[in-house]
């Protein structure tokens, strides 16, 4: 749903990235998070999400000051302590970025899980689907499958939990903007409330 790097960064820092660090606790919730063996696994996951976002028309979308004193970073900016430029490491398959992520559809069991998720989304009212899953909404519209269905039974047994809030201490440690954190927290809470009200049942 993000169109700019600033919006994408805020959403990642205040959700998938930051909350995982804080949720695991221990070293992961401190400045020594790299001590935890989960650190690299978690950051590979974040890298994969960034790669997916890049493939959606944002391959060279970025912003921020350069590390060598430039006011604005460019694709030609040098990376501090290395000879590479930003462009050299901007996306998978370029320069020394000689790795890629498997697509879930290549594994039968993961494909089945993905189909289960899609079937759950198809039960959402059209306005909720379009608000939170605009691409799925576009697909549903093109397939003429925009009619909402009845909420899934036994919703009370398995609702999405409301997200925890990031503490003031954590915001200060990571240098988060409190206003941005609150904005993302409000949006995350609204997402959960909308999904639960629509009768969405998580598959996991």
What would you note in describing this structure?
- With 204 residues, the protein is mainly α.
- It is globular and about 55 Å long.
- The model is unreliable at 110-117 and 145-156 (pLDDT under 50).
- The longest helix has 21 residues, at 38-58.
- It has helices at 5-24, 38-58, 108-121, 126-132, 134-142, 168-174, 178-197.
- The two termini are 23 Å apart.
- It contains 7 helices and no strands.
- Helix 4 crosses helix 5.
- 6% of the residues are buried.
SSE order: HHHHHHH
Q: Compute the number of helices.
A: 7
Helix proportion of residues, in percent? 40-55%
How would you describe the shape?
globular
The low-confidence parts are 110-117, 145-156
Beta content comes to under 5%
Span from first to last CA?
23 Å
| Average pLDDT for all residues | 77
- Secondary-structure content class: mainly alpha
Q: Which helices and strands appear, and what pairs or packs with what?
A:
Elements: H1 5-24, H2 38-58, H3 108-121, H4 126-132, H5 134-142, H6 168-174, H7 178-197
Write a brief caption for the model.
By secondary structure, the protein is an all-alpha fold. The protein has helices at residues 5-24, 38-58, 108-121, 126-132, 134-142, 168-174, 178-197.
């Amino acid at each position: 749903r993000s169109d700019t790097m600033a919006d994408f960064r805020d959403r990642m820092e205040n959700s998938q990235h930051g909350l995982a660090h804080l949720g695991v606790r221990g070293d992961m919730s401190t400045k020594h998070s790299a001590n935890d063996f989960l650190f690299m696994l978690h950051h590979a996951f974040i890298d994969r999400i960034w790669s997916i976002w890049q493939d959606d028309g944002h391959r060279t979308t970025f912003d921020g000051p350069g590390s060598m004193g430039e006011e604005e970073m460019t694709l030609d900016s040098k990376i501090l302590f290395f000879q590479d430029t930003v462009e050299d490491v901007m996306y998978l398959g370029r320069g020394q970025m000689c790795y890629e992520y498997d697509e879930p559809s290549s594994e039968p069991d993961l494909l089945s899980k993905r189909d289960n998720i899609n079937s759950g989304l198809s039960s959402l009212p059209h306005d909720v689907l379009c608000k939170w899953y605009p691409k799925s909404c576009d697909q549903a519209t093109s397939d003429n499958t925009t009619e909402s269905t009845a909420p899934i039974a036994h919703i009370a047994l398995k609702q999405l939990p409301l997200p925890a809030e990031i503490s003031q201490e954590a915001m200060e440690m990571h240098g988060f903007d409190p206003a941005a954190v609150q904005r993302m927290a409000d949006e995350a809470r609204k997402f959960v409330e909308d999904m639960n009200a629509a009768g969405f049942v998580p598959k996991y």
